[in-house]
Amino acid sequence: MKKIFLGGFLFCFLILSGVSQAQITVKGVVYETTGNTTLPGVNVVQKGTTNGTITDINGNYSLTIQDPNASLIYSFVGYLSQEIPINNQTSINVTLQEDISKLDEVVVIGYGTQKKSDLTGAVSVIDTDDAKKTVTYDVAKMLQGQAPGVTVQSSGEPGGSVNIKIRGITSFNNNNPLFVIDGMIVDNPNDFAPGDIESMQVLKDASSAAIYGVRGANGVVIITTKKGVQNGDLKMKLKSLFGIQNVAKKISLTDREGYQKITNAAYLNSGQAILPGNDPASEYYIDNVNTDWQDAAFKTGIIQNHTISFNGGSENFGYNFNTDYYKNSSYIDTPQDYERISTSLNLNGKKGKFKYGAKLGYTKSDKESFNEYNVGTSSVINLLQSIPTMPVYDENRLGGYGGTDNLTQKAITLNVIGFNNLIDNEAERNRFIGNIWGEIEIVKGLKYKISASADQLDTHTRYFVPPSDLGWYYITTNSESSLDINDSRKTFTSLDNLLTYNIEINKHKLDALVGWVQEKTNYYNHWSRGVGFEDNEISHLEYADDTSTGEYESTITGISYLSRINYNFDNKYFLTANYRQDKTSLFAKQNNTGDYFSVSGAWKLHNESFITLPQWMNTAKLRGGYGTLGNNTAGVYAYTPTTNSFASYLFGNTLAPGTIVVDATDPNLKWEDTETVNAAVELGMFDNKLQFTAEYYEKKSTDLLARVPLPLSTGTISNDWSSSVMTNAAAVKNTGFEFLLSYTNSSKEFKYNISANVGTLKNRVLKIGTDDTPINGTNSRTEVGRSIGELYVYETEGLFQSQADVDSHATQPGAVAGDVKFKDVNKDGLITDEDRTYQGVSIPKISYGLNLSGSYKNWEFSMFWQGSAGNKIYNGTYNSLMIGGLVNHHTDMLNYWTPTNTNTNIPRPDQLETNQNARASDRFIQNGNYIKLQNAQLAYNIPLKANNIVEHAKVYVSGQNLLTISKYKGYDPDFMSDGLFSRGFDYGSFPNPRTFILGVEIDF
């Protein structure tokens, strides 16, 4: 009955509509700027409705209109939209003017907005259309190669972390930039869906980031998500993609025969009998197992991402709701998957002089992490070192996976597949963010805005190690089996009060901002541990033989006062000044306040009457600035010494109670400070189709937190952690040039855009501690006058070819013919640690990115290249495969030295490693230069007839990490390395996978 009634109602409504309005059909042609070339694919929509169409291949359109007094809106990417009243016309031809410049677009800066052409600071505006073509779970990954001075490193592990640095290294502790999403300060943006982003800006210098004070030293990334459209009908957008992933490159490893040949030679060269499992004469000889561990482990991973969004609004209210589902299964035969669902709701509205808005977001993610048997080891290294004579599966061992035998094989080699499948290592994150704001115009130009936000992250991790047998060294007994459960909650709240004033008098424009910000962070952690489980016993704490538990909590409070003035005279001269004062509970009262400021200016030469630019040059602007920033890298309560009040002391024959200082601290800890200087020129040429920017910057950071040694008189133990104290005692400087060049041509049927960016970086340490004592890393050293984490190893001079060669060389204990000859750098006749030398910087001197995009009719194509140069890499992965002992080997080892094979640079295998041939040396340092085809995409916009359902549809195929041009012998020169002092050390970073994707986008 209801269906009949509804159908009748709709029928009557349609009849009445037809009676009340005279239906007409409007036809026409849409041309580009010159009026000679037609434009296909132009959107033609009746204003205020979803009734629309697109122009065909010849620029023709036809649209039936119910209201002859309505207006039509013509829009196309790269052109200015036009609105034309119909006025009963049945034929309307339109010429769209090319939007040749985005200089007047409004960009988001700290606590406000500004025209891009009026910026005085170093702000990179990211092309989100290009950035979004990189399919990723992490917003930070999208920035790779998209802006000069911004470097990004990531791991191929599903849900793995991403490192991002802006204009070099400014701290010995934390170099991550500040992320601001819709005005909210957030940590770790990997919980937020990249597809919901509307715009991204990177604040790189103090003149742009000083408004964030102590949080801005590492740069600021400002992200704005999509908002609702007022006076807009409900629109729905669906995006869906599905892809496959695999490892783009495999490392050449020895098979069973090659492994046994090298290992047997290593034993014979050390004067030992070869092992039974590798001895063809032994009854225990293994010739029926030949495991290729890369083939066994690497599989096809699956990636999928599905998004649905709703956008619309009424006269005074707008909304945007977005739901995003992302899942990435591992390309390794283990359960290490990553799954996330994100939702966000943006509301905005106005009522008279009052504006208001809110943002709500919730994200739930689950990640099964890879496991390390020992802290600091790598699953990738363990996989590559697994010997071919160990099977993947063995039903006779507890757990069902293969392992090695102490008597026949003796190799300490881990079955990574079995280890990761047996262990339960789950991490669940639930994150909620909320922001509500209101703004009122008190008098004309004077506005007050209040904003309250909260960011709460709840994490739950569960790590269970069951009893198992993965070989003689990797046996977990019942008493060693363990369960660790960790629950934590971190809540960040902020209250912002901002007062802005804008005034324009004749040629003078002024906008001022003052504000007060209050922040609070609460952290709570509860952990429980159970030890002792039987095989197949329920893995709950109550079944453990022994349990323990603990808690930790902390609170950080802060208050800040901020101000800014933007002044513009006659659209020629621009001045910006920022000031911010921060107070925090992290430091003692006498040091808890930091004052930061900046000043910057710009001059638009093209607006000067006395300056005549060449005809081909449209705009020219000079800008520069100076400012100071802070960096808060101190731990909670780091200035307060830790004591043990239960330390007893034997006084005579009586045990007396006492208290002892566990860790010495500096009560005068304070923020790290950074000052920046930069100057730039911006040019627009050939009708502003060609845009060019060149910039120079200096970034000096002082009072860096570093550990300095304490005198022995304090009771410390040499080389012990307690023998040093964290204090403000270091300085570092970064300098470089940045270039940005883009060209857009949209005047022809074939439209294209080319944009390239290049950034250089020179990093130099100015001070370390009180006496400039160098800091040693893994195969690296940080020393005053040099770059952070420069590679520092032995230098080689080939191989010893005879005993006489050994005898005539500097003393090298244990060396014989066939061993590596290390250079006696200090000429003291001995090969010692003092002979290590610097072998290259680990920080790339140049980084670059290139975006190419084009369209022809309904087709779109894009390519994105990215790379870096000027750095060296210590290939620890290759090093681990060139030991020549019991673990598996790189095939290069097959060309090892023998008395009959002397024309080689591969030393003889030696099980005892008497000469330490595999010690850190230049043998394992390789060039880090690379250029990579990060993304290529081909898309087709499906021609649609006029309808009231589907407005636009596009299908595309794309690939990521398609091609790498490099001489590097590891998996990928673009690897995850953020050891800071141990930079450039590749020890089994998960290789970035090659990805092939099929996607669809539909607008309803």
Characterize the biggest β-sheet: 22 strands, antiparallel, barrel
> Termini separation (Å)?
30 Å
Helix-strand category: mainly beta
Q: How much strand content do the residues show?
A: over 45%
- Helix content range of the residues, please? under 10%
How would the global form be characterised? Answer: globular
Summed over residues and divided by their number, the pLDDT gives a mean of: 89
The total count of helices amounts to 9
Give the number of DSSP strands.
52
Question: Low-confidence parts lasting 5 or more residues at pLDDT below 50?
Answer: 1-21, 715-721
Task: Describe the model.
By secondary structure, the protein is mainly beta. It has nine helices and 52 strands. The chain has a 22-stranded antiparallel β-barrel. Strands 10-15-16-13-14 form a five-stranded mixed sheet. Strands 3-2-5-6 form a four-stranded antiparallel sheet, with no helix packed on it. The longest helix is centred in the N-terminal third of the chain and has 19 residues, at 2-20. The radius of gyration is 33 Å and the shape is globular. The two termini are 30 Å apart.
Summary of the model, kept short:
This protein has 1004 residues and is mainly beta.
Describe the secondary structure blueprint for this structure.
Layout: H1 2-20, E1 24-31, E2 43-46, E3 52-54, E4 60-65, E5 71-75, E6 82-85, E7 94-95, E8 106-109, E9 112-115, E10 123-126, H2 128-131, E11 150-154, E12 162-166, E13 178-181, E14 184-186, E15 197-203, H3 206-209, E16 220-225, E17 235-246, H4 256-269, H5 293-297, E18 301-314, E19 317-328, E20 338-351, E21 354-368, H6 379-385, H7 416-422, E22 424-443, E23 446-465, E24 468-469, E25 475-476, E26 482-505, E27 508-531, E28 546-569, E29 573-584, E30 593-604, E31 617-631, E32 642-651, E33 654-663, E34 672-685, E35 690-709, E36 724-745, E37 750-760, E38 762-768, E39 775-777, E40 780-782, E41 790-793, E42 796-799, H8 803-807, E43 820-822, E44 837-840, E45 846-856, E46 859-869, E47 872-875, H9 876-880, E48 925-927, E49 930-941, E50 952-965, E51 985-986, E52 994-1003
Parallel strand pairs: 1-7, 13-16, 47-51
Antiparallel strand pairs: 1-4, 2-3, 2-5, 5-6, 8-9, 10-15, 11-12, 13-14, 15-16, 17-18, 17-52, 18-19, 19-20, 20-21, 21-22, 22-23, 23-26, 24-25, 26-27, 27-28, 28-29, 29-30, 30-31, 31-34, 32-33, 34-35, 35-36, 36-37, 36-38, 37-45, 39-40, 40-41, 41-44, 42-43, 45-46, 46-49, 47-48, 49-50, 50-52
